[in-house]
Amino acid sequence: MATTPTPSHDPRADTRHRPPHRTSYQTTTEPLIVTPTFLTRADATPRSERPLDEGATRSRHGIALDNPDTEPAEIALEADPNLAFEHWDEYWRKVHGPKFAYEEPGSTSEPVLRYDQVHRVAAGPSSFFRPPYLAMVAADEKLVADPHAQVPTYQRPRWDGFAYIAYATEADINRVLKQPQYDKRVVADEQTAFRMVTRSITREYILLPSAAHRDPISLVKIHYRRAGLSREEFQARLLHQHADLVLAQAATHTYVRRYAQLHNIGSTQFDPEGSPMDAISVLSFASMNDVEDYLLAAEYQAIEADEASFTDEVRSEYWTGLNYSVINRILPELATRRTAQAESK
After folding, report:
1. How far apart are CA 41 and CA 47, in angstroms?
2. Maximum CA pair distance of the chain?
3. How far apart are the C-alpha atoms of 43 and 38, rounded to whole Å?
4. Is the sign of the CA dihedral 202, 160, 304, 256 positive or negative?
5. 3-state secondary structure of 317
6. Helix, coil or strand: residue 40
7. Mean of the per-residue pLDDT values of the chain
C-alpha cells in the first residue's frame, strides 16, 4: 500500500523549506539583499486607477487582458467580483507560494534565504485610516441614526501586499530567477495572479532581530525622501539617526518584535513603480492590537515627527499585513552591522 509523504518529505510541500521541518540553517550579521516585490492582484480595476504590467492579468485562455474592466468574466483567477479578493488571497499563499519554493528536477531555490508573503489587511492600521477608531456620533452624543448615509469612503493603498525575498548576494537573484522554472513557469503564474509587481533590489538592515521569525503581523512603511535630499543622504538618516530614535523608545521594545529597513539600491529590470521608493521599514508584531497600541503610544509621536522631517509625507504610506513564512533558511536571526552601509559603497 502506498504511503502519503509527510509534509517535511513531500517535495511539493513548502513547509520543508522552513523551521521546524528544515534541519540546516545559516546566519549572518552582514546585510542581505532583498527584492521587496510589491504587488497588486489581478482584478477588474480600470487601468486609470491601478497600473497594469504588460502581459499581466491573464484570461482563462492564457491571453493578457489589456483592459480587464471591460471583460471581467474572462479573468482566469476569479471571474466573480464577490469572490475576487478572497480567491486571490488564498491563491497567493496556497498555490503561488509553494510553486516558488518548489524545486523542479535540476532546479534549486536554495539561494533564497527567506521568502515571506505580507498580505495587506484592510482592517489593520494604515496611513489612510489610522487609530484610534472613533464611534460615529451625532451632536447629541448618540450614535448616528443614518449610517447608510455616512459610510466613510474606502481609501485603498497602492499595493495589496509584498513578497519579502532575501538572498546573500545580488548574483544569487539571477541564479534563481534565470532558471527555466522561474523564468518561464513562475512568471506565468505571476501573470495569472497579479496585475503589477515591482522589481526593486534593496539592502536589508535588521535593527531588531526576531527571536523565531514567526511574528504574525507587520507594519509596512514605504518611504519617499523629502525634496532636497539625495537618496544616500536619506538612507543614512533613516539608518542611523532615525533608527536610533526608534530603538530608544520603550514602546518599541514593548510592542515591536522585529524591525528591519530595506534600502533601495537598484532594480532587476524596468521598474517605474518600485524605483522611486527610497526605502521600506518593516516592523513586526505579535498582534494587530499591538500595532494599534504602538501607533497610539506617546513615544511614537516622536518617531512620526522625525519621519515627517525628512520624508515626503504625501507620497509615503503605511499599512498593516499578515505574514506568511514560505522559505526560511536563516536561524537565528541576528542584527545587521550598520557599519556595512559605508563599507558597501
Report:
1. 13
2. 73
3. 16
4. negative
5. strand
6. strand
7. 95
Q: Over the chain (345 residues), what is each successive 10-residue block's mean pLDDT?
A: 61 94 95 98 96 96 96 96 97 98 96 98 98 98 97 97 98 97 96 98 98 96 98 98 98 98 96 97 98 98 98 98 98 90 54
pLDDT of residue 1: 46
pLDDT digits (tens, 9 = 90+) for 110-132: 999 999 999 999 999 999 999 99
C-alpha cell at 121: 489587511
The pLDDT assigned to 9 comes to 76
Reading the block at residue 339, the C-alpha cell is 557599519
- How far apart CA 50 and CA 320 sit, in angstroms, is 20
Residue 301: closest CA among 246, 235, 238, 220: 246
Bridge partners (DSSP) listed for residue 73: none
Q: Phi, psi (5° rounding) for residue 67? A: -135, 75
Cis upstream peptide for 152 (omega within 30°): no
Amino acid at 299: E
Report the top-level CATH class of 32-132+159-344.
Answer: alpha beta
- The ranges assigned to domains in the chain are 32-132+159-344
Q: Global pTM? A: 0.95
Question: Which residue is it, cell 498593516?
Answer: 320
**Backbone torsion region of residue 161, taken as left when φ is above 0, otherwise alpha when ψ lies between -120 and 50, otherwise beta:** left
Instruction: Say which amino acid occupies 204.
Output: E
Cell output for 78: 476569479
pLDDT confidence of residue 6: 60
- Count how many residues are written for the chain: 345
**H helices present in the chain, as ranges:** 84-91, 97-101, 171-177, 180, 187-193, 231-237, 243-248, 250-255, 288-296, 298-310, 340-344
Q: Tell me the Ramachandran region of residue 228: left when phi exceeds 0, alpha when psi lies from -120 to 50, beta otherwise.
A: left
Per the structure block, which three cell numbers stand in for 172? 544569487
The per-residue pLDDT for 339 is: 78
Task: Find cell 512620526 and name the residue.
Answer: 304
pLDDT tens digits along 319-330: 999 999 999 999
Please give the grid coordinates belonging to residue 260.
528591519
Q: Quote the CA–CA distance of 318 and 295 in Å, as a whole number.
A: 11
